[in-house]
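Researcher: We plan to redesign the surface later, but first we want a full-length starting point. Tokens attached.
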């Protein structure tokens, strides 16, 4: 039966097989790359969600802290109001970018709250204040660790999104850029001065 197939037909079958194989490889690569983007995007969302949980715990702790300080530092109403206002802005943020910006503002107002508290020795000796301060310190460590994780998964996602040839899939399926969590406050970027 092979004797009846011409050389041209065999070449045509081989070319068709190669084309089909190339199409299968390309489709498999597209599916694999798309699925990799889905996994990475889910990791980014999970990282932000984890960070958000710790931030919400901090938001819940702040009113108790402000009330404790208010009992001792009655003349510091402006600072206390700024802390509560920054907390409310951070809690009511509509987007991830807005929440990151407002969280940086909140961090700055918390520093001013603790600076004020140092002027009141009775407050520094209050066990409730010390407990709240320790809880906040623990939460800040957890938030910092979750920010590191979030930024790490964003980096992996962004690398995949920007590197050729996977950037073609990112454009075709509209995988959008994800923001890194960055410190906005210039004071946070400065070197710490150590004096003895």
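Model: Full-length starting sequence:
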């Amino acid at each position: 039966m092979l004797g009846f197939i011409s050389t041209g037909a065999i070449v045509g079958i081989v070319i068709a097989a190669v084309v089909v194989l190339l199409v299968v490889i390309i489709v498999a690569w597209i599916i694999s790359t798309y699925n990799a983007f889905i996994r990475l995007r889910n990791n980014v969302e999970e990282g932000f969600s984890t960070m958000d949980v710790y931030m919400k715990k901090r938001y819940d702790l702040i009113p108790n802290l402000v009330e404790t300080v208010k009992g001792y530092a009655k003349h510091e109403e402006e600072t206390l109001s700024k802390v509560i206002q920054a907390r409310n802005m951070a809690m009511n943020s509509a987007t991830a970018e807005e929440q990151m910006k407002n969280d940086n503002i909140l961090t700055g107002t918390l520093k001013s709250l603790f600076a004020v508290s140092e002027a009141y020795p009775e407050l520094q000796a209050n066990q409730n204040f010390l407990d709240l301060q320790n809880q906040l310190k623990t939460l800040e460590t957890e938030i910092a660790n979750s920010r590191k994780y979030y930024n790490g998964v964003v980096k992996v996602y962004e690398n995949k999104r920007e590197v050729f040839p996977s950037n073609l899939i990112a454009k075709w399926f509209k995988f959008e850029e994800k923001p890194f969590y960055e410190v906005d406050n210039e004071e946070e970027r400065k070197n710490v001065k150590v004096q003895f």
